[in-house]
Write a structure and sequence with these properties.
546 residues, alpha+beta, 16-stranded antiparallel barrel, 5 helices, 16% helix, Porin_dom_sf, Porin
Length: 546
């Protein structure tokens, strides 16, 4: 009986001890899990407090935390789990519409450089992932890595344009050669990677370009410059840049109504400006006006293309534009641009200039418009007005420019005449679907239609659609024999029509038809335009921009 009694007391104690040890182990595991969860929650709250305190200091008052806001955050690992993990919280659905205001306009990677304040405001509105003191997000659709205070940032943008099309009705007259006019060909027009580094209001942009206005396959440079944005509504720039003096150029290449600029705009902008031109200057805007001015030099690659250059070009570009009347349905734009080449590049052949351009079709075909090779050039200048009117969904705009060429009479025994060239265009645009083109005060130009809803046929949403027409004339005839014995300048007229479809803010599909008439000139090499040429082209473009 004693043995039975002892056993009755001993074995329950042993079982109780074993049960207690297993319960203690389970409690320890549960406490470890709670500790990890608490550390993650503390880290998350610290990050939120730091972020909203920073916003509150910038605004000068207490920041209000929007209810329901949720973001994925990095959870601090506990001592028993060395690898960090992401705490996945419920996130907002992707925003496909409706969009209002500036949110509806497609992304333009070539937009004005944002100030530090603008960058912080854009970053605060977008969904981000916080990793330690770094955040990764997509302000305005551009992948960006930034410090939590936004002082340091790096972003990558993209503009990719692929053109497909060809010419028809290009039969040469007797005695002329056919020229290079493909019935079907392709060209990667712009393939640009926009790399941007920021420290507060100091921004460095470097943009390689893998496309071409003629034939793709050669890597070039679009820009490489340093910008300071610490002054109100002002950007100061030095480096390889594209100073803009025309409304058409100020729209940015991703927002064009047609595949390319009118010929007169292309000729004028490349005198002392154009892509990758060394520039020192700045731009300032207010709600109703904008002014800009740049001193310019050579283009990137000039001396590698011509190793005989002994004196590089210098020039200047200025622009002033305003919006004298604005209402909900009406925008009036008035402006003027001017450029001057103080001296052109001097090489082994002296100071020469040749103005030439294609038929506003970027497929790399033979250019029929030319001034001939102009020798003994002392100075070149161009100036002209720009006007535009938007009424509801309809936009009408036009620009005129005069080009003056002066000769250096001291270098020649025969005094060569000064020359004057002219060109203009008128363009009309109507937005069929989406919100109409609107005026950007930061660029003093009109921007793309807005995509209110992304393309989704199941819900009856088709993106944005616009139709455009343009008449463009460029006259490069000044005097007889201006380009040498028997070589005169000629005139080009281009009629164009086209449709642009925007299925969302990042994709654009274009289709253009062009009919061109070009008068004769022996200055076009290869005997292609001895008697005058006319023809047609149909070209489509697919564009992606981030």
């Amino acid at each position: 009986m004693l043995t039975t009694a002892i056993s009755g007391l001993f074995f329950p104690c042993v079982l109780h001890a074993e049960t207690s040890e297993s319960e203690v182990a389970a409690l320890r595991r549960e406490m470890a899990m709670m500790r990890r969860d608490m550390q993650g929650e503390i880290h998350r709250l610290q990050m939120r407090v730091a972020r909203y305190e920073h916003v509150a200091q910038g605004k000068g008052n207490t920041a209000k935390v929007a209810s329901g806001a949720s973001h994925p955050h990095l959870v601090a690992a506990g001592p028993e789990e060395p690898q960090p993990v992401f705490a996945e919280e419920p996130s907002h659905p992707v925003h496909h519409g409706p969009r209002t205001g500036s949110e509806a306009h497609p992304a333009l990677p070539e937009g004005p450089v944002a100030s530090w304040a603008e960058f912080k405001a854009a970053s605060a509105k977008e969904e981000t992932v916080h990793i330690g003191g770094i955040q990764v997000g997509f302000p305005k659709g551009r992948p960006t890595i930034a410090s939590d205070d936004k002082a340091y940032a790096f972003s990558i943008g993209l503009l990719a344009q692929e053109d497909v099309g060809g010419f028809f009705g290009m039969s040469p007259r007797n005695g002329e050669t056919k020229g290079n006019f493909n019935s079907l060909t392709q060209n990667a027009r712009r393939l640009r990677l926009y790399l941007s580094w920021r420290y507060k209001d100091w921004v460095v942009n470097v943009t390689p370009d893998f496309g071409s206005s003629s034939v793709d396959g050669t890597v070039g440079l679009f820009e490489a410059n340093l910008n300071y944005t610490g002054l109100r509504n002002t950007t100061l720039t030095v480096g390889y840049f594209q100073p803009r003096m025309e409304e058409e150029s100020a729209e940015r290449s991703g927002a064009f109504e047609f595949l390319e600029r009118p010929t007169i705009v292309d000729l004028v902008r490349n005198l002392a400006g154009g892509v990758a031109r060394f520039s020192v200057g700045g731009e300032h805007y207010e709600k109703r006006w904008l002014v800009s001015g740049y001193f310019t030099g050579q283009k990137f690659g000039d001396r590698s293309k011509d190793t005989t250059i002994v004196d590089s070009q210098t020039g200047a570009v200025i622009r002033a534009a305003g919006r004298p009347y604005v209402s909900k349905d009406i925008d009036v734009h008035v402006g003027a641009g001017a450029t001057s080449v103080f001296k052109v590049n001097e090489n082994s052949s002296g100071r020469q200039l040749k103005l030439s351009d294609n038929m506003e079709v970027p497929l790399g075909e033979t250019s029929l418009l030319t001034s001939g090779a102009l020798t003994d050039v002392a100075q070149i200048w161009a100036a002209g007005p720009q006007l535009a009117l938007r009424w509801k969904r309809f936009l009408l705009k036009g620009e005129y420019y005069h080009i003056g060429v002066q000769r250096d009479h001291q270098a020649q025994t025969v005094h060569l005449p000064s020359l004057g060239f002219d060109g203009w265009y008128v363009a009309a645009n109507y937005t069929i679907l989406g919100t109409p083109r609107s005026y950007s005060e930061k660029t003093a130009a009109f921007t793309t239609p807005g995509v209110t809803y992304d393309f989704d046929p199941a819900t009856g949403h088709w993106g944005a659609l616009e139709v455009s027409g343009r008449w463009s004339v460029t006259d490069l005839y000044g005097t007889e024999n201006q380009g040498g014995a028997g070589i005169n300048g000629n005139q080009q007229t281009v009629w164009q029509g086209g449709f642009n479809w925007y299925p969302n803010r990042h994709i654009k599909v274009m289709l253009d038809y062009a009919h061109f008439i070009v008068s004769r000139s022996k200055g076009v090499s290869g005997g292609v335009n001895l008697f005058g040429r006319d023809g047609n082209a149909v070209v489509g473009r697919v564009q992606a921009a981030f």
